[in-house]
Amino acid sequence: MSISPEDAEFTKEILPGLLDEIFPSKINNNTQLYRHIINNEQLNSLPLAVNKNIHFRMLSLVDDGIGNLYRGIKGRGWKLEKLDEFKEEPLVYILYSTSDSLDEDTEINAFISLQFSDLILGDPSLGKVVYLFEIHLSSELQNQSLGTRFLLGIDKLSVSPTLKAHNCKGVELTVFIQNQRAFNWYRKNGYALASDSPPNEEYVILFKQTHSVT
Ligand SMILES: CC(C)(COP(=O)(O)OP(=O)(O)OC[C@H]1O[C@@H](n2cnc3c(N)ncnc32)[C@H](O)[C@@H]1OP(=O)(O)O)[C@@H](O)C(=O)NCCC(=O)NCCS
């Protein structure tokens, strides 16, 4: 995916401050969870052992949730590809952990990654979107409405005055067709097939309009 230098900068510098006001700094879902908001560059510049641990923990969450789909679709190299994405892609991460600091043994219990960009395939003049790269919860945290709460937070971000002023039209994401559960869950939460979602692919692009597209 290509992103303009302006959107990359906006993602790394502006989104974290907006997320700070929306995503709770602590969540008590039987266990106490602490929030960490960090962009990919900050993550990369943590001490190596910490950075490696966080990347490893995020990768493990992806693997536990939908690793079988990634292996089937992208082959055995999917983890290296995902690690490269963690490192290179301009993203802001919202991590939830039982630990209030990011250390070399911190567990990551849930994470979301976001980017501010053009509508993924549509005409860029149509506006901007919050692009939801990843949302993963550990199996212990699933089915307790936490994911829905996070999606509502992302909606709220997309209608914030700052994003409205930057012509944000909604939230976009990609989901594997085989990930029926997530697909149905997104549909239930107001996402629809984007008009330009490519046919005959392993994935679809879903869009939720939060501002009118002119
Ligand atoms: C997809 C995912 C993010 C959803 O988050 P979640 O917190 O589990 O979702 P919610 O609890 O808000 O809703 C999930 C379901 O639980 C149900 N639910 C929510 N709270 C519940 C409760 N207290 N008791 C029983 N059911 C409940 C919801 O109605 C919903 O039902 P549905 O699946 O039939 O739609 C999460 O399950 C996950 O991380 N999955 C693996 C990774 C993945 O697929 N990520 C998406 C990649 S694109």
Set down the secondary structure blueprint.
Layout: H1 5-13, H2 15-22, E1 26-29, E2 31-39, H3 40-44, H4 48-74, H5 78-88, E3 92-97, E4 110-118, E5 128-137, H6 146-158, H7 161-165, E6 168-176, H8 180-188, E7 192-193, E8 203-209
Parallel strand pairs: 5-6
Antiparallel strand pairs: 1-2, 2-3, 3-4, 4-5, 6-8, 7-8
The protein binds coenzyme A (COA).
Short structural summary:
The protein is an alpha+beta fold and 214 residues long. 41% of the residues lie in helices and 26% in strands. The protein has helices spanning 5-13, 15-22, 40-44, 48-74, 78-88, 146-158, 161-165, 180-188, and strands at residues 26-29, 31-39, 92-97, 110-118, 128-137, 168-176, 192-193, 203-209.
What is the residue-averaged pLDDT? 94
Low-confidence runs? none
Give the CA-CA distance, first to last residue. Answer: 24 Å
CATH superfamily: Gcn5-related N-acetyltransferase (GNAT)
Could you say what the CATH architecture is? Answer: 3-Layer(aba) Sandwich
Main sheet strand line-up? 1-2-3-4-5-6-8-7
- The number of distinct β-strands equals 8
Shape: globular
Number of domains in the coordinates? 1
Number of helices: 8
Give the H and E element order: HHEEHHHEEEHHEHEE
InterPro entries: Acyl_CoA_acyltransferase, NAA40
Subcellular location: Cytoplasm; Nucleus
GO molecular function: histone H2A acetyltransferase activity; histone H4 acetyltransferase activity; protein N-terminal-serine acetyltransferase activity
Keywords: Acyltransferase, Cytoplasm, Nucleus, Transferase
